[in-house]
Amino acid sequence: MNFAKSLAIYLFVLCMVPISKPVFAENLEFATIDLAPYALHDDPGGRLGLVVDIDLAIADRAGISITDEVLPIARALKNLKHGITDCLVMALTPWSEENFIPVAEVLSRFDAAIVTRAGVPITQVEDLHGKRLAIPRGSFMEFPISTDPNIKQVLTNGYEQSVRLFKAGRVDAIAGSELSIYYYFSVEKMSRDNIGGILPFIQASMWLHCAKGQVSDDTVKQLRQATDSLRMEGVFGDLVKRYIPDDFS
After folding, report:
1. Which among 31, 57, 10 is positioned nearest to 238, based on CA atoms?
2. I need a surface site. Which of 16, 54, 101, 216 has the fewest CB within 10 A?
3. 243 in helix, strand or coil?
4. What is the phi/psi pair of residue 71, to 5°?
5. Residue 42 CA neighbour count, 13 Å, CB half
6. Do residue 145 and residue 196 come from a single domain?
7. Exposed, middle or buried, 182 (CB in 10 Å: 0-12/13-18/19+)?
8. Do 100 and 7 lie in a common domain?
């Protein structure tokens, strides 16, 4: 697996064989990746998840009826590629631009980062030499954080476990999607006082994408106008604040 492919996997992109379904339906089928905080299950505060909220806001502003199915990453992307799903909010990549219609930007920053514990500054990946870094199993396999033999990798089952190890002082740093890390910081009642530094190592943006040949031009225009207006009004930024600690927004 080369570096570019590893980056694409992080950014929720898989190569699938296209099978389009040229049917234009008034009710659009959206999908949401089944990862916190993008989709939540049985949240004590009744929150549905950040991307579920984003999808509903776009649909409401555009005046379009949607259904939104929460799916594993591979299934969501396969469905979009095969025309089973009409639209999906995900990271913008060269692959997504080639295979789908990038309708409009939702969030300008959708980064992956390294977060260190208090007292451990970081300005470059090499600052992790001799340190224990929690990484979700199977993530960033071709990146320096995984290939540098001087970094002590602690593989975890996901962001929840990574953050709990971090809070307990069993690792010196964690790596992954900033939004997911910050969400679990909020779950664990953690603040900036509990961390040392933040080093983004993948920079990306989050966009609404739609399947090619699946959504009419007029509907794509409605979705674009709705998404652009919500972003410029700060609505998406306000939604993000519902899922992360105040001092990380």
Report:
1. 57
2. 216
3. coil
4. -135, 155
5. 0
6. yes
7. buried
8. yes
Q: Residue 175's closest CA among 192, 158, 191, 193?
A: 158
Both tokens of 192, joined, read 């900036």
The predicted pLDDT at position 25 comes to 44
Instruction: Dump the DSSP string for 182-197.
Output: HHHHHHTT--GGGEEE
What phi, psi does 114 have (nearest 5°)? -105, 130
Q: What are phi and psi of 43, to 5 degrees?
A: -70, 130
Q: Which amino acid belongs to residue 10?
A: Y
Q: Flag whether 16 is in a domain.
A: no
196 in the same domain as 121: yes
How is residue 144 annotated by DSSP?
Answer: H
Tally of domains within the chain: 2
Burial (CB count within 10 angstroms: exposed 0-12, middle 13-18, buried 19+), residue 239: buried
**Token pair in block for residue 7:** 């980056």
171 and 220 assigned to the same domain: no
pLDDT at 26: 61
Nearest by Cα to 183 from 243, 114, 238, 237: 243
What is the C-alpha separation between 16 and 3, in angstroms, rounded? 19
Name the residue range of residue 180's domain: 112-202
134: helix, coil or strand? strand
Write the single-letter amino acid at 172.
D
Helices (DSSP H) in 148-232: which residue ranges?
159-167, 178-187, 217-232
10 Å CB burial of residue 204 (0-12, 13-18, 19+) is buried
pLDDT attached to residue 80? 96
Residue 114 to residues 33, 128, 163, Cα–Cα distance (Å):
22, 10, 12
Percent of the chain beyond pLDDT 70?
A: 89
**Side chain identity, residue 124:** Q
- C-alpha 79/C-alpha 90 separation (Å) is 14
Place of tokens 């071709």: 142
